[in-house]
């Protein structure tokens, strides 16, 4: 299953995604399925604030999660996941920023990587939860690089949503289901 969760900064989307992932994982455990619970963290330790945020997130996840800090190569990580695993990718927004600005990914490269990741989830039958920010609201930014970034991210959002079974937007901690069935 592919689940896409979006929302603004500090909207509660990551907490909702973690609750959803834990629920899926616990369901697998109850059904005696062999599965693991992964948290793919895409943030880089870029400054003291980010180091503190990463530390807090790690403490919150405790020992249930297998946390993988990977700012670039999410495709490789997903290729090693197996049937019934639950993978939370948090977040697409930061990953896109990393690969555009550090590795000069084009839109075509981004679409190729995301397509491969979605195909892996379907082929291997694992649960993939993708978290991303809504960045297309508010005052437009006049900088070309930001406009390009926003355009690329929105193209990826549309591609992921098209293939997702469930699409949720979180605002002020309240999930709104745009596609699929509310099950949590």
In short:
Its EC number is 2.7.1.156, 2.7.7.62. The protein has 184 residues and is an alpha/beta fold. It has six helices and seven strands, in the order βαβαβαβααβαββ.
Reconstruct the topology from this structure.
Blueprint: E1 2-7, H1 13-30, E2 37-41, H2 48-61, E3 66-69, H3 74-79, E4 86-90, H4 92-101, H5 107-124, E5 127-133, H6 144-163, E6 166-171, E7 174-179
Parallel strand pairs: 1-5, 1-6, 2-3, 2-4, 4-5
Antiparallel strand pairs: 6-7
Helix pairs in contact: 5-6
Explain how this protein is built.
There is one protein chain. With 184 residues, the protein is an alpha/beta fold. The protein has one domain (2-179): Rossmann fold (3-Layer(aba) Sandwich). The chain has helices at 13-30, 48-61, 74-79, 92-101, 107-124, 144-163; strands at residues 2-7, 37-41, 66-69, 86-90, 127-133, 166-171, 174-179. The protein has a seven-stranded mixed beta sheet, with helices on both faces. A hairpin with a 2-residue loop joins strand 6 (166-171) and strand 7. Helix 5 packs parallel to helix 6 (144-163). The longest helix has 20 residues, at 144-163. The model has no long low-confidence stretch (mean pLDDT 89). Pathway: Cofactor biosynthesis; adenosylcobalamin biosynthesis; adenosylcobalamin from cob(II)yrinate a,c-diamide: step 6/7; Cofactor biosynthesis; adenosylcobalamin biosynthesis; adenosylcobalamin from cob(II)yrinate a,c-diamide: step 5/7. Belongs to the CobU/CobP family.
């Amino acid at each position: 299953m592919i689940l896409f969760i979006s929302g603004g900064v500090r909207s509660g989307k990551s907490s909702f995604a973690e609750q959803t992932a834990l629920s899926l994982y616990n369901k697998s455990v109850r059904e005696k399925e062999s599965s693991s619970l992964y948290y793919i963290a895409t943030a880089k330790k870029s400054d003291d604030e980010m180091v503190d945020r990463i530390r807090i997130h790690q403490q919150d996840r405790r020992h249930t999660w297998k946390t993988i800090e990977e700012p670039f190569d999410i495709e490789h990580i997903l290729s090693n996941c197996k049937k019934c695993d639950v993978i939370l990718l948090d977040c697409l927004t930061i990953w896109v920023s990393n690969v555009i600005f550090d590795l000069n990914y084009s839109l075509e490269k981004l679409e190729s990587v995301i397509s491969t990741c979605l195909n892996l989830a379907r082929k291997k039958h694992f649960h993939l939860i993708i978290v991303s920010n809504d960045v297309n609201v508010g005052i437009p930014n006049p900088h070309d690089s930001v406009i390009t970034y926003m355009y690329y991210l929105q193209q990826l959002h549309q591609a992921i949503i098209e293939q997702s079974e469930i699409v949720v937007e979180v605002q002020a901690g309240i999930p709104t289901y745009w596609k699929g069935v509310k099950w949590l």
